[in-house]
Specification:
Blueprint lengths: L5 H19 L8 H11 L6 H16 L18 H16 L37 H12 L5 H30 L7 H12 L7 H13 L10 E2 L16 E4 L5 E8 L6 H11 L6 E6 L8 H18 L2 E6 H9 L5 H18 L5 H15 L1
Parallel strand pairs: 3-4, 4-5
Antiparallel strand pairs: 1-2, 2-3
């Protein structure tokens, strides 16, 4: 008989409602201090290790549903083990996508190098867990031991985590709305000012996602005015990164038959080389792609002048032989060129801000620091 996960979902939702009530009643002080100490270390690392929080929720849920299960045996292949990945896929991940999309995993939290490792979560074997943050290995194993041996209030643990995620989400939403409000209050600006703002934003740490959003935002504007894009579809950005978001590049435009038409691949601080061009030829073979952009924020675009000349000649030969047009350029130059087709630069600023916030609401790729930095830039340049 097929297992019905609806009951598990209802249990998780019940605990979430209790967490919200705890916040509304200002009763978080009722949570035991040991629970806070045991869990805060993982909550504080959620921006870089979000899978671990989901893993902990799934583990706690399993212990509540089936107390006799040894939750250290998180794989069905272990003797007397169970599939934590299936429970996470069926229950925890969908729950996170609805309630905490910023911290949700694409499919399951059990696909990272650490969580899919065939290692029993006890002190003997677990020390080999390849967690991204090595400092979390011991606290994780200690927490798992407390959960397994019920040395800690399991229900309070799950309620506390959900309460902290709820508070984090509320806090971020305030930041997002304030930034959108600032963007909607801009004065008249010109191309040079827009370029300075964007280039300054690119200087933020961990900013590889920003150039993708900038180019996507400009394309949303171009779709309003450029004839080339009539009856074409700009696919939404996939906020959950993977090696290949839409099957080709970072941004994809399709024709009215849903065939790939124009592709953009974005590199951050990486020079364009001939191997990238050859990879594009391979990916585009036997497709309907007419134009393929490879854009980079790398200052000089190419490694050196010789490589630039070789690539330009290579691109020309590809065009002659296959008809595929490859454009290798810098993002700054491309953006400056495209801005000339925009009637109102404020619309571009608003679109970029909206896409930043949308990304931040659904993924940790855009950090809170990126949103805060952009709000400061808006205030400095536009008022």
């Amino acid at each position: 008989m097929k297992y019905n996960y609806n009951q598990d979902i209802e249990i998780l939702e019940k605990f979430y409602q209790q967490a919200i009530e705890l916040i509304e009643n200002q009763a978080l002080s009722e949570i035991q201090e040991e629970i806070k100490v045991s869990l805060d270390i993982f909550i504080q690392k959620i921006e870089t290790d979000k899978s671990l929080i989901q893993v902990i929720i799934t583990t706690l849920l399993k212990k509540i549903i089936k107390p006799e299960q040894d939750i250290r045996l998180h794989m069905a292949k272990f003797p007397n083990g169970y599939s934590a990945r299936v429970l996470d896929t069926k229950v925890t991940t969908p729950f996170f996508k609805i309630n905490f999309p910023r911290y949700a995993n694409k499919e399951t939290a059990f696909l990272t190098k650490a969580t899919r490792a065939e290692i029993i979560w006890n002190f003997e074997e677990g020390i080999k867990l390849p967690l991204r943050s090595k400092s979390l290995v011991e606290p994780f194993l200690t927490l798992i031991d407390k959960i397994e041996n019920q040395k800690i209030d399991i229900e309070q643990c799950i309620i506390y985590i959900l309460s902290q995620l709820h508070l984090l989400s509320q806090y971020h939403e305030v930041v997002f709305l304030e930034t959108l409000e600032v963007a909607n209050s801009v004065n008249i600006i010109n191309i040079n000012r827009v370029m300075k703002m964007v280039e300054r934003h690119f200087q933020e740490p961990l900013s590889s996602r920003l150039p993708v959003i900038v180019i996507f935002a400009i394309y949303k504007q171009l779709f309003k005015t450029i004839r080339r894009f009539e009856n074409k579809i700009l696919l939404p950005l996939n906020v959950h990164t993977s090696a290949d978001k839409h099957g080709y590049g970072d941004i994809e435009i399709r024709d009215n038959h849903n065939n790939p038409f124009e592709i953009l691949e974005i590199k951050h601080n990486v020079p364009i080389d001939r191997n990238m061009i050859l990879d594009i030829v391979k990916k585009s073979a036997n497709t309907t792609i007419e134009r393929y952009y490879i854009l980079t924020t790398y200052k000089d675009c190419f490694i050196n002048q010789d490589e630039e000349e070789y690539i330009n000649e290579l691109i020309l030969n590809i065009k002659r032989e296959s008809g595929l047009e490859i454009i290798a350029n810098g993002i700054v130059n491309t953006l400056k060129y495209y801005l000339r087709f925009i009637e109102d630069y404020r619309e571009f600023i608003n679109t970029y801000t909206e896409e930043l916030v949308k990304d931040a609401r659904n993924s940790t790729e855009i950090k809170e620091s990126h949103i805060q930095a952009w709000r400061i830039i808006l205030q400095e340049y536009l008022f």
